[in-house]
Amino acid sequence: MNDLPPLSDADRSRYARHLVLPEVGEIGQRRLKAARVLVVGAGGLGSPVALYLAAAGVGCLGVVDFDVVEASNLQRQVLHGTAALGRPKVDSAAERLTDLNPAIEVRRHTVRLDRDTAPAIVADYDLVVDGSDNFPTRYLLNDVCALLRRPYIYGAIYRFEGQVSVFWAGRGPCYRCLFREPPPPELVPTCAEGGVLGVLPGIIGSWQALEALKLVLGVGEPLIGRLAIFDGLAGRWREVRVPRAADCPLCGTNPTIPALTDLVDYEAFCGLPPADATPELDPAELRNQLDAGVPMLLLDVRRPEEWAAGNLATHGAVHVPLDELPDRITDLPADRPIVTLCRSGGRARRAATLLRAHGRDARVLRGGLQAWAREVDPSLVVL
């Protein structure tokens, strides 16, 4: 234990309530001070995770996020405040965490994780807490953590429900043992599409932070081999046992992903079109073409309540929700290009892919209506 960093008088004062816990004590607090934890996502889940790990005295926190703070984040992403609107989330997060605990180190990773960037970043940390909101990142982190023998603390939220588990290949199952194949992307609504009660990520993220602290301290029974499922409306938890799968392609007997050099294209694996597969227009390009009278159809594929709050009907936009689009393609004029619109681009990309598969000339508004509101028309209300 001599290699653990010592506690200062200020540390003893700050962590006094930890030091009296037999499960923590001085050695445990020194372990926390020596720990390096990577938090992926500075959003709904990442906010409580990062705040509680910083407050607990985890010596080095890495925060990964490439997004900026938007008004719709503030309902649940409690790391950020109104003054941070428009700023990179990693910068806002680092300032808040350093204010909460100036003694810790906060590392900023303003990068999109992929098979090229993730291994080097994860390798610098002892464990990973996943606050992402998409399947490609979950599979990527699971695979990298398994191959680097790092614990992977999983969390997911949707509307009033959440899940938590700890995947640690070599000591239990990995994420692929539970979810062998990702669901079709058209069946995976985002929080923007389906909504989420603001307090829910606080509940799930706090449990993720608890699991991280237990692993660092070496106490209690981590959620290895168990998936905890929370129903907020019923106020009920239930638990599902997750066995290790012998035929798992990652941690099974004969893995097909045996090394970091064998990482796959995770967006393709999850059924998402490559970023360059669908033509895009940025907001300024679209505005210029509209001003020049270029013939086109603006197709808004958001939910009815999103359309009602604010839309581009004055520019000729029409509304067809994404789930209705497959049955209404033939209703759309075929004599002009279609530009698909949604809040941030995800649903619009799926719509454009569908339209192009039916022979239509379709492209996407890059960054969605949020980008339009930022760059062209700040008066547009975007839910």
Characterization of the model:
The protein has 383 residues and is an alpha/beta fold. The protein has two domains: 35-269, NAD(P)-binding Rossmann-like Domain (Rossmann fold); 280-375, Rhodanese-like domain (Oxidized Rhodanese, domain 1, 3-Layer(aba) Sandwich). The protein is 34% helix and 16% strand. The protein has 16 helices and 13 strands. The strands form two sheets. Strands 3-2-1-4-5-6-7-8 form an eight-stranded mixed sheet, with helices on both faces. A five-stranded parallel sheet has the order 9-13-12-10-11. Strand 5 (152-158) and strand 6 form a beta hairpin. Helix 4 runs parallel beside helix 5 and helix 4 (46-56) packs across helix 10. The model has no long low-confidence stretch (mean pLDDT 92).
